[in-house]
Amino acid sequence: DPAAQLEFAKYVLEHAEGMSRQEVNEKLQKKRYDQMTNEGLKWIKKLAGSGITVHRSNIAAESQFFLGTVYSQGIYGVDRDDSKAFAYYQQASKAQHAEANYRTAVCYEVGVGTRRDAARAVQFYRKSAAQSNVPAMYKLGVVLIKGLLGVSPAPREGITWLKRGAESATAECPHPLHELGLCHELGGIPGLIPDERYARELFIKASKLGYVPSQVRLGQAYEYGTLGCPVDPRRSIGWYTRAAEKRDPDAELALSGWYLTGADPFLPQNDTEAYLWARRAADSGLAKAEYAVGYYVECGIGVSSPDVNEARQWYVKAAQKGNRRAIHRLDELKRMGVQGSTRRNMARPRRGNGGAPDEGCKPM
């Protein structure tokens, strides 16, 4: 049974590392691993050249696509080889393999394993989208809306593809839900009526599939009262927390802001947590977080004592990335010279009626 052979070969490859660990030393482990991966790949290569179709499933094309992934990622003891990966994707695409059509399009778009060819990329995105491949529907929608890859803008058709993609969105590809949400939130697309409440529904669906940008957007909506949401600290903090757990720097900085002001009774004010969350975001290279850490250090918030010299170092990092507030603060510190910081006795940030920190003392 070719289908069973393919599944067994994949099983061998996927479990080669774990099974090889049963050997007593590294040399035997490597030998066992190489034996298993070589055997698994041998069977898949044999199936890739077989041309076998079973119950409308093209086993050869599926094997070719699998091999394309192996060479693209350089896994199972195989060196990465973009040219071989592209060749296998192309072979599978000739058998109308939807994912292979999509991967072929990506190769043509970015020039991996082949020369760049925007027209061919669009052609293969269309093929894959017509086969209901969600990443392809999302990509084609964005290309048509924004007029990318040399295509004349066709926003109505683009929205149609985004809607189709959103209807089939998965945890692996929630992107069309978020992109369609942005379209309805921001408007400006011919034939599309802005609808913030519908945008919120789409963001919620994407967030429940684990899409971090949508989780951040909902955190902002419940913090500032946008998208038809009430100001709700508990929900805002909840969505930011889910995104921050996946190390999103914008969410981490937003949590810093909530800890800085507190949100009784949901979140006690805590300077140390405010500093630590901002520091995590800053360590990811987020310019506005680097500015916030500078602010905290200069004011002595969440740290043992104020330190204008360390603060200046953080402001420089942020300023080098174009952060205007950091640039302005460096200018102020330069004018003050040896007088040092004037922020040590500043008023504590607090939340205004809209839920956001008052502008006068907001470090974000």
TrEMBL record:
Transmembrane segments: none annotated. The keyword Repeat applies. The keyword Repeat applies. Pfam families: Sel1 (PF08238). Keywords: Repeat. Residues 339-364 are annotated as: Disordered. This is HCP-like protein. It comes from Linderina pennispora.
